[in-house]
């Protein structure tokens, strides 16, 4: 197949940063072929209020008004049920939970989700989405480390789903067969994003290669195969969230004995062609429209109208084009 089209591609997990970095990277959403960006709230300071989220949205729209930005709040002890109601009324779509945020102010780490139950109750009532970074913090006393942090999180997903069966939950950037199975076992209110890089990489690719290092880390070949399988079967609750996360080159490449490299893989500028290339490599190119647009939009109640459906991005295969290894700085 030399040409394939996707209706209004949507990236349901992306980091657009702030300030100069945002000005540089936000236009790459459109450049990468995407019309919608689900924007993560982990800025400095994190986006914890409706007012901050709306101001951030304005900043992004000033940089590139052609993309639809869906905004999120950062789950923290300051977030109240009243703020949830306010956020929903202002058009904010979701709340993101990070493991570190969860362990703050709690001895038992992730178990402290219960302290957020009033917030989740409000989210369920007003129909906001809970986005989970599904890893528990590393802990040598329980043999918890970066390779099993995701499977060990899954009981929390199940208990949250059981406690709030109508709350829409997205397990973000799944990397394991266990996570795929866990999401499948849940009801229609639980979905899962998959990144492009986790469809490509395994442990061997990031051990010793800092540019392939991200959290959650890419796992074993069989885990990667599970991600590919669920796309091949066109499961409607599994869709693209790139987790594209830019860092300055020096923070990726110059680790020292006392300073590790930054976690994050940056795919935005080439995202749609990259995803098409990967899907083609494992026999799922015909599932591209579902994976990169329709399924996520359906879960987030962002179905396209007839006019938007016509707004297609066409990918054309051309031979012998090599992506530049280094992007020159514009003066
Ligand atoms: Zn992320």
Outline the low-pLDDT stretches.
Answer: 101-109
> What share of residues is helical?
25-40%
Domain count: 1
Distance between the termini: 39 Å
CATH class: Alpha Beta
Named once each, the bound ligands are: zinc ion
Major β-sheet profile? 6 strands, parallel
Element string (H = helix, E = strand): EEHHEHEEHEHHEHEHEHHEHHHHE
Strand content: 5-15%
Mean pLDDT: 91
Q: Got a strand count?
A: 11
Order of the strands making up the biggest sheet = 5-6-7-8-9-10
CATH level-4 homologous superfamily: Metal-dependent hydrolases
Structural class: alpha/beta
Overall geometry: globular
General description of the model:
It is a single chain. The longest helix has 15 residues, at 149-163. The termini are far apart. This protein has helices spanning 19-25, 27-31, 50-63, 81-89, 99-103, 117-126, 149-163, 177-185, 203-206, 221-232, 249-253, 271-281, 288-299, 306-309, and strands spanning 3-7, 10-14, 36-39, 68-70, 72-74, 94-97, 129-133, 168-172, 190-194, 238-240, 312-316. The radius of gyration is 19 Å and the shape is globular. It has 14 helices and eleven strands. Helix 4 runs parallel beside helix 6. Helix content is 37%, strand content 14%. Zinc ion is lined by residues 13, 15, 40, 243, 245.
Question: Descriptors for this entry?
Answer:
single chain, 331 residues, alpha/beta, 6-stranded parallel sheet, 3-stranded parallel sheet, 14 helices, 37% helix, binds zinc ion, zinc, dihydroorotase, dihydroorotase activity, metal-binding
